[in-house]
Amino acid sequence: MKPVNQRFFEDYEEGQVLQLGPIKVEQEEVIEFARRYDPQFFHTDPERAQESIYGGLIASGWHTASLAMRLLVEGYLSSSSSIGSPGINQLRWLQPVFPGDLLMVRLTVLETRISHSSPERGIVTSLVEIFNQKNLCVMSCKPVNFFLRKDAES
């Protein structure tokens, strides 16, 4: 196994908080993402979106999740011994995200435990909250990640 000289399972403690971002939501990206993956008019058509309950164009929730993932990879996962994830729990889109919004991620470690079936890895459950520039929580979820343990590197 390739050595990893980054954060390991043991480096995560319940209650730790990590702040990431910001990342700007660009109108062109909102439209392009939605045209390809979530082609609802309030994501793709700025004029028609004015008539929606949102009063304008909004990002797809999946686009918002992708932007959050970008911040998580750059500021959390790429500098760790992460070896994947079995999934995300309780994904919630709480507020619309508009072009021009600045999004920040706050990750709070909720639980850490050693895997019973694969003791060379640990399991970290976190609360991920995405806030806009008005400090409104626009999305939240509880991802579960696998991290190698320090003694599993060799």
TrEMBL record:
Annotated ranges, domain MaoC-like: 18-116
InterPro entries documented for this protein: HotDog_dom_sf, MaoC-like_dom, MCH/BMMD
Signal peptide stretch: none
Species, as recorded: marine metagenome
PANTHER family, alphabetized: BETA-METHYLMALYL-COA DEHYDRATASE, MONOAMINE OXIDASE-RELATED
The protein's name in its UniProt record: MaoC-like domain-containing protein
